[in-house]
Amino acid sequence: MVRKLWLVVLFGLVGLTAACNTIEGAGRDIRNTGDAISDGARDVKNKL
């Protein structure tokens, strides 16, 4: 019984670690998208 509990805890921790990496990656993607939008707006402004 204790061994099964440790396995559940272990898999839970692995899942949390994976979720943190996913959230960090999503944050980078959102930041890169915002940078691209800002660069595009700046280019349009400079052409006017």
TrEMBL record:
GO BP annotation list: response to toxic substance
GO cellular component terms given for this protein: membrane
InterPro entries per UniProt: Entericidin
Pfam families hit by this protein: Entericidin (PF08085)
Segment forming the signal sequence: 1-19
Keyword line: Cell membrane, Lipoprotein, Membrane, Palmitate, Signal
KW Nucleotide-binding (keyword) present: no
Family the entry assigns: Belongs to the EcnA/EcnB lipoprotein family.
Name the UniProt record assigns to this protein: Entericidin
Organism name: Zavarzinia aquatilis
